[in-house]
Specification:
Blueprint lengths: L6 H11 L8 H8 L3 H13 L3 E4 L2 E4 L1 H23 L4 H8 L8 H10 L16
Antiparallel strand pairs: 1-2
Helix pairs in contact: 1-4, 2-3, 4-5, 4-6
Length: 132
């Protein structure tokens, strides 16, 4: 599925999910993404309007839809990392490059690539390719 999100929106979704349960607020998002607070505010408003995130008492959470997007981004990212590292690209370089496109990939293409790579269980960094 394609989600029509921007790179900054992708980075925000990943930051919210990867906050390890730490409740994020607007100023945290601005710091993590290295953007100004007004820019972070506009980003959060866009993600809210797309029903990807919600705010409760100033704390920002992914919605179930947002968690689905996160899972697909991560699967795309890790599958593409496997492909690049199998082609001889250093795992850190692969990660840097894949961040630029992982959110643009459609699920059908990633599933086909995943199968063609032999259903890899982990990415080059040892993380599961498929998230639960």
């Amino acid at each position: 599925m394609e989600y029509n999100i921007t790179r900054k929106e992708r980075d925000c979704i990943v930051a919210i999910h990867d906050s390890s349960g730490f409740p994020l607020r607007l100023f945290n998002i601005a710091e993590i993404l290295n953007i100004k607070r007004p820019t972070a505010y506009e980003l959060i408003k866009r993600l809210e309007s797309k029903e990807i995130i919600e705010r409760k008492n100033g704390v920002i959470y992914l919605t179930p839809y947002g968690n689905t997007i996160y899972s697909e981004i991560i699967m795309a990212h890790r599958t593409l990392e496997v492909m690049l590292t199998k082609s001889g690209v250093n795992s850190e370089r692969a990660c840097e490059q894949i961040e630029k496109i992982d959110y643009l990939m459609d699920d059908t293409s990633i599933q086909k690539l995943f199968i063609s790579l032999g259903n890899p269980q982990t990415c080059p960094h040892g993380k599961p390719v498929k998230s639960n």
